[in-house]
Each structure stands twice: as C-alpha cells, then as structure tokens.
Design brief:
globular, six-stranded mixed β-barrel, mainly beta
Length: about 130
C-alpha cells in the first residue's frame, strides 16, 4: 500500500500512530523487544466503532489504537500475536475490554497488522513501551 506524504502528514496531525514491527526487525532507533511478562498475556479482540472513546477522542478504526482496562491514556503498548509472532505498537485511548479472558481491544487497523481481523480474536502478549 502506498501512502502519499500529504496523507501521512494529515493522519499524524489527527493523532495517528503508524508503527508495525515484525519479530525479525526492530523499529528504527529502538532496542530489541524484550519478552512480555506472563501476566501480560491473554485474549484480544478488535472493534471499529465511530463513537467517542473514554479519552474523549473520536474512535477511528484506521488508527493504531487500543482499549485497556487500566493503562493510562496515551501509553504505547507493543502487542504480539502469539500464533504468528507479528507485533504492532498501539496507543491506549479507550477503556475495555469487558469480556472475561480478554486483556486488550484493538482498532481494526492494529488487528490487521497482526493478522487477526478474520478470526476476530487472538491470543496475545503485550508490553508497555512508553
């Protein structure tokens, strides 16, 4: 997918975060990822609503964002799909999930990056990166 610089600038101006990292490559300027703690693993699902999030911003399914029960808004989290090893860095901007066994809800874009859109859910581990 080709993104023009004007589209990228507009997306960043709206607060979008575009970071996808596979296990074999680190993000530029970042140290290698450390394994997530066992307590930071569980189920994940994705959602694509257009309502306001708990942080007050409008949900946009094309941004790399997520909902977590108690992490601070703005926290960046690396989420890894345990089935395929794909990782995406998301920004927490909402509260949830509210289903037992799930630890994070991802935007549709984030779910797409780690290959879980078609299944709807995935077993993941996450770690706070900033």
């Amino acid at each position: 997918m080709k993104i023009t610089s004007a589209a990228l600038a507009a997306a960043f101006a709206l607060g979008a975060t575009f970071t996808a990292v596979t296990p074999s490559q680190g993000a530029p300027g970042q140290a290698k990822a450390t394994p997530a703690k066992a307590g930071n693993c569980g189920g994940a699902s994705w959602y694509a609503l257009t309502s306001r999030t708990a942080s007050g911003e409008r949900m946009n399914a094309s941004y790399l964002t997520a909902a977590h029960r108690n992490l601070r808004f703005g926290t960046k989290v690396a989420v890894t799909n345990k089935r395929n090893g794909k990782t995406v860095v998301v920004r927490i901007n909402d509260r949830g999930p509210f289903i037992r066994g799930r630890v994070i809800d991802l935007s549709k874009a984030a779910a797409s990056h780690i290959g879980m859109v078609s299944s709807g859910t995935a077993s993941i581990c996450y770690r706070v990166v900033s």
